[in-house]
Structures are given as structure tokens and as C-alpha cells.
Write a structure and sequence with these properties.
Strand order of the largest sheet: 1-2-4-3-5-6-9-10
CATH superfamily: Alpha/Beta hydrolase fold, catalytic domain
Distance between the termini: 14 Å
CATH architecture: 3-Layer(aba) Sandwich
Number of helices: 9
Mean pLDDT: 97
Order of helices and strands: EEEHEHHEHEHEEHHEHEH
CATH topology: Rossmann fold
CATH class: Alpha Beta
Strand content: 15-25%
Shape: globular
Structural class: alpha/beta
Number of strands: 10
Amino acid sequence: MIHLPFERRGPNGDPIRGDVRIPDGPPPRSAVVVVHGFKGFKDWGFFPHLCEELAVAGFAVVSFNFTRNGIGDDPHEFTELEAFARNTYTRELDELLWVLDQAADGDLLPRRPDRVGLVGHSRGGAQAILAAAEDRRVGALVSWAAVGRLDRWTDETRAEWRELGRLYVLNGRTGQQMPLNVSLLEDFEANASRLDVLGAAARVDVPWLIVHGDDDLTVSPDDGRAMAEAGSTARLHTIDGAGHTFEAVHPFEGASPELTDATAATVRHLRAHLGSD
């Protein structure tokens, strides 16, 4: 397997850092872009394992960090909390569409792929759904434990956020209090139609696999069921006993049965609808 890191100026001028994984042999004809979620990053837990499994299955695989996900020079630690505070949903979506451009046009890969798929986890799953609804070049979609709505705040939280200008969310793994500026809320409200995940789900017209654990306490399995009902091309794959990260942890300690199930279902779906080499 060939593993090539990259760094390029993204659509907002900030550097987007990522990785390309390519199986040995002739360049693949299909590519997959993998999208991390909130308080996530391309090197978190299962992502490198997932990308390697997709490459072994015959795909060119692109993973990347959103520019304001809080990760700086250290690929495993949140050291850029002020950048994290300034992140917005539309910024992430625009960056994902830019990476999709780079993959689909072949700029990141040894050859221009004939077909491109998206795989996203949690909030990254929601962004993948939004991107698939906007970009007709997406040929297949897989969402893992995706949120069905991005406005997950109570009226009381919104009022406090506006008053203080900033809220904090606890990162249970690191113990960090991670800031969110009110600009995130304002961005959502100004772009609510574009960021409507269930509305986008109804517009997705490519083969779509929804993977969700039935013991997910972070994003309810009801979100997966709601998207499966909204999406005319969607198929729901529920994994018994799986939580939000399919029993994977960071640092990665190997693939759990639940993660193996999610990965295998994903590979089957992408092979069926993108092909592989």
C-alpha cells in the first residue's frame, strides 16, 4: 500500500492536511473520501484502520482534517482551540466539497477516478449527506452514526450562547473544555436550508448505506431510522450492541467485532456501487 500525506491551501486559504492511501498495483478507478466528525480528526481511533481496509479493498482513499477541527502540528492532540472555536458548518461543507473536487479531478491521485464515494462518521456523516445532495459526482454514500440534524441545541442553550458569545463542550477523552463561538449558531441560522440534513437526505439519489449502532448514546439510532425513511435510496444497517464509535477507542487498540461489521458492510456497499480494482 502507498501512503502519501498532503497539505494544500483550501477554499478559505487555510492549509488542509490529509492522507492518500492507494493499493499496490495499477491506479484504482474508484476513490473514496472519508470524513471525520465533531471532536474528531483523520488520525482518530478507527479512521486510519478504515482507510487502510478501503485501500486493501481496491479504492484510492482520501482522508483529511477540517481546518478548524482543533488539530495543529501534533496530529493526535487538540492544540488549536481558538481555531476550533471559530469553526462553522458551512466552512466544513465547503472544505469537504473542495476535497471532493481534488479527488474527483485526480489532483490528489495518480489517475482521475471514474467514480467517487463518500464515507462520513457522526457530524462528518451529516456533512457527507449534505455534500452528496449538492454534488452529482458522488456515486455512493455511506454514513456511520450520522446526526440527523445539526441544530442540536435547546432554546435555553441558544439564549445563553448569544448572551455570552461562547459556549464550552467537554471532551470526555482529553478533559478539555472546547470553545464554540456564537458564530457557529449564527452560521447555522443564516444557512438553515442548506444545512438541513433530513432535507438533504430526501434529495440523495445515489446508493446510500446508513450504519448505526443500536446502543449509540451519543446519536440516537432514531436519527438513522429517520434518515432511512427520508432517503429513497437509503438502506439501514443496524449493528447490535454497537455504540457511537463501534466500540473503537483512541489510541486505537484493534478492530472490535462491531467495527469489523461496519467496515465489512461499507466495503460491500462501495464495491457494489463504485466497483473496485
